[in-house]
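Morning!

This is the sequence you dropped in the shared folder:
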Amino acid sequence: MFLAAGLGMAYMITFQPLWGMVRSRDWVQTPCRILSSELKQNDGSSQLAVVFAYSVANQEHHSERYCFSQMSSNTADGWKRRVIADHPAGKQTTCFVNPGDPTDAVIERGWVPDMWWGLFPIPFVLIGFLALLVATGVIKVSNPNAAGTHSGWRPSPVEIHRNEGTGEFDDSPAGAPIEETGPVTLKPDATPIQSLLGAIFVAAFWNGIVSVFVWHNVAQFGRGGFAGLDWFLTLFLIPFVLVGLGLIGFVLYSVLALFNPRPTLIVSSAAIPLGEDLQVSWSLSGRAGSIREFKISLKGTEKATYRRGTTTTTDTATFAEIAIVETTEMFDMEQGSANVTIPAETMHSFDAPNNKIVWTLEVRGAIPWWPDVSASFPIIVLPLPIEE
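The structure's back. Tokens below.
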């Protein structure tokens, strides 16, 4: 629904005006006469209406299109009133006529302030597109408390189960996984290539929109120099262009991060109860010698989502952070193992619609003058064992 609504709006108020600007570059400049100009009011919104006459091949034509943006709006009426004041009835001016269709003409074939409304459909298209990718399985959304093959396990709420063999009851967590024996290789919540693809998508989307307006302003400058430059548009575009350059820089940063050493973590169990010891083994593939400081830590994070007015907010707080290894020795970085005790007085993994307790193993490697190694590996922490 979001995607359909966004694309429908984008077609009418974004793509049609932009396409008109592009295809009118070779239209013929033709003398015309203003017949009338007014600002039509309709339910609180206003629409610019400029009627003009022009001749092609000794045949007179009429048009009511001042520019390619034909939408009604209740903001920024100042520029419309200036257009009306500059185009009184009877004024001789110029228009641009489509050489392939003499009935197709416009007075202003460039950018006008109402075209900023073309950015309005972007959130709808983006949300709808991402939802479509998730629904079709292109983007997989996993439980952040996942480890190994148990990505969908939720340690709560507690349910009562009856053992059919013994007839006894127990209150083990709902959906508790069957315990695995032997070590488990953890998967990071995001790989460097995933981060790069995300950065490319955001940078291309943002800069693709901004470049349309930058191109128009450059074309205006080419036709009239500084006198033809739209200074309001130029100043307005500066922060958008700076953000776009920052996104391009982040893409380059993500490309460099592809060449970083890759950490691999192996833990002694897929799920570990509170108060128990977890053995963590690590290894680095690639240029491990480039790392100057290496650190692995166990981190517990609480996430709470709530509504504040009409805004949905998620607060994140770290309630536990335990260093497992901190070293500057290259041989200790390349591979090794260590034990960490899960604090018994803390909270086990928890996943509810508005509250989450997430446990992760954080790997950090500082590299001078280069993107640092950074990876997060979710693990499952079980509640305290029930005493017999």
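Headline: Helices lie at 2-23, 78-86, 122-135, 192-228, 231-257, 330-334.

More detail when I'm at my desk.
O.
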